[in-house]
Amino acid sequence: MRPGPYERHRELLQSVVRAIAAGECRRPFTEATGQDAADAGMRSTRTAGKVFRSLLGRPFELGQPGELGRVRTESSPYGLAPPIDYPRCDPAELIAAAGRAAAGWRAAGPYQRAGLAVEILRRLNTRSHELALAVHHTTGQPLQGALRAAGPRAQDRALEAVAQAFAESERVPADLHWKSAERGGQPLQGTCTLVPRGVSLLVGCPDFPLWNGCPGLFASLVTGNPVVVAPHPRSVLPLAITVRVARQVLAEAGHSPDLVTLAVAEPERQVHRRLATDPAVRIVDYTGPARFADWLEQHARQAVVFANRTGLNTVVVDSTDDYRRLVRGLALASCRCNGTVRTTPQNILVPERGFTTDEGHKTLRDLGADLGDAVDRLLGHPARAARALGAITADEVRGALTDAARYGPVLHASGPVAHPDHPYADLRSPLLVRLRASDERVYTREWPGPVSFLVGTESTSHSLALLRRTVARHGALYTSVHSTDPLVLAAAGTAALDAGVHLVENLDDLPADPSSALAELPGSGVNFVTGRFRVVRSRRHAPPSAPVPAPTRLEVDAALADV
């Protein structure tokens, strides 16, 4: 008999659970791909390209309830056509279908749910290059970066969410036994049941739909919650493929495929807002600008909101013992994916008096000029520029590049960069603007695209105070500090703790893309998982133990005879 989904993937799942408990990094999909791509089931780029092209210009079928029509919302920044049309379904019907499927999914238990989640990830892993092409042609990311954001590394991140959710589910004891503190210590017994919160909504990210979306999707599934996926209108296909694979796996296992559905609509319909405020939606996952995160927390009060704000990624420069390495790292971070990666540094805080380096004292003017030169060298070769930059897909990015240049001296102007293979793709070099610390109204706004500000401060202490205040208010995915002074590093660590942000110390490889970004779960740590379920307890008097019957006379005589 064929083993169940948990038994098939038990060793893989348990190895990740053990790694999390030990504080170790375990990346099975990435490791398998690095050792032997064939063993990992990876399709070749050519085969994936054929599969991807077969999707173009055709209806993307899902068999979902409540279909009202078809909708096309995407366009490739690289000129690939024709677009794909998706089912536009009634949001109320999707939520109702998810609710109907929930009881059977809850009854399946954490072992079966976790096993099926790993099976979904395994099948997605075999389509990594196809998913990368989908991300490439919807978000504008260069192909290599798209593979990092949609392939094995993204699947490992989702697997971490599966393992964490499974481990937390296992912590809930099924049976309880204790004695009452009253009534002479009368024995009691009861049960603990993990109860999912309800329908979960994933609001898709336009730039990194799988990297940012899959952890919430799989954490909800493993803890027993059906999921409605509402992708960003600009990048539907990566999540649509994920939803279709999930529905296939669930149906093959005898579960309702409506445990995972796709909600797509024209941008003006604001379907994500309608879904987020539906009383039946009890969990919302979102990664992106703080403005919509604030809206969710204000209006989706019936739900637990896991909002991961991209915010103001900030670099504090105090001193360095490798100036050229620092400059190269900042230049590369500002270029990658045209800044749309949302982990590129926006604010670089440097004392007005300058800072010490292994090459002597450097001023803000020196740093600005050297950064500009490093960017120009990096983008000087067309093929290298195409690998670093991504094609711009949104008018808001173009507008931001024009608008930001008005607020201060431009240290490096943004300009068009030719793509060697796609002449109509809109690639732009990053913009670097000099600001004063008093220009908070400018640099505390989250700017989309490749916009960075070199902000002059009174001192490193002032820089850390700005970091603490601005990041605590507006959020960030990370902050970075460069210093050779242990006291400064300690103060930066305290500032990061106060602001509630991850800290990177003296690393030139800033978290500029998902391959190097901090890989832990988004949101609120363990609460990212435990907030998706409740534990319901029952209690009752323990039945009296059966009395031991007195021995009969025959039994006594037999015992004496033996003696």
What is the CATH superfamily label of the largest domain?
Aldehyde Dehydrogenase, Chain A, domain 1
Strand order of the largest sheet: 14-17-18-11-10-19-20
Radius of gyration: 27 Å
Q: Provide the residue-averaged pLDDT.
A: 87
Unreliable stretches covering 5 or more consecutive residues: 35-43, 512-521
Major sheet size, sense and barrel closure: 7 strands, mixed
Fraction of residues in H or I helices: 40-55%
In the residues, how many domains can be counted? Answer: 2
> What proportion of the residues form beta strands (DSSP E)?
15-25%
> In terms of structural class, how would the helical and strand content be classed?
alpha/beta
Using the coordinates above, name the CATH class of the largest domain.
Alpha Beta
Work out the helix count: 20
Q: Termini distance?
A: 54 Å
Basic shape? globular
Gross CATH architecture of the largest domain = 3-Layer(aba) Sandwich
Strand tally is 21
Protein name: Aldehyde dehydrogenase family protein
Pfam families: Aldedh
InterPro entries: Ald_DH/histidinol_DH (IPR016161), Ald_DH_C (IPR016163), Ald_DH_N (IPR016162), Aldehyde_DH_dom (IPR015590), Proline_metab_enzyme (IPR050485)
Keywords: NAD, Oxidoreductase
